[in-house]
Amino acid sequence: MTATTESRVREIDTPYEGLSSTATADFNRDGYVRLSNVLSPETIAEYEPTITSEVIRLNTQHLPLEERDTYGKAFLQVTNLWEHNDKVKELVFSKRLAKIAADLLGVHSVRLYHDQALYKEPSGGITPWHADQYYWPLSSDRTVTVWIPLQETPMEMGPLGFARGSHNFSLGRDLPISDESEREIRRTVLEQGFEDVVEPFSLGDVSFHRGWTFHHAGPNRGEVPRRVMTVIYMDADIRVAEPTNDNQRGDLHWVDRTAVGQVPDTPKNPVLYDARA
Question: What are the entry keywords (predicted)?
């Protein structure tokens, strides 16, 4: 391992110094936070080629864009890359990112739910309005997703946008990502007066959003894929809940079929940060 590579590994496992004194309060109020310079350009350059290579290798979506439904047009989706590649595992298991997640949630420790690469192809469609936690059979809202663009993401590439404060609003939580969720949640956002915050991401910017925060993204009008890596964290003490829909029943495999009422303390769900350790 070279000295340069060692410095990059240290960056992903050392505390982030840019978290403001109000960040947790802002996160609790707004349901999301966007942070600057979380990862250096050098670190992103270290991991992006491997992630992209794994997305190409593991992708199972081969239909032309025009033959896909709205969900299929939104992005190529590849999950739990960390189980397939040790280099990707370094980033997914980053103590820096996990500590930010724990600090924002106000918990001592967080464990992994799963990772997910989301690559929006050129001419890829919108990501409809939705809330992630619709899919998760978990007992509380102590969950957070980090959204890590692997390139600068101007407006024409479809950066993630958030309905500020929507994580405290229950209407629309029963909708999977679909044309219906786009229509109904968009209407709710307008009717309830939630601010739709959509801004470009500079290289190194990342966002963290709560499981029930409504969010969406525009189409990719650029000439290259919008490459994004995500990691979903949960309070390390969270328990598996009785699924309320078929998608949650399917998602039980992310917690290795842990029984309802039990903490998913499994090899698939390691603790990634513990302030008491």
Answer: Dioxygenase, Oxidoreductase
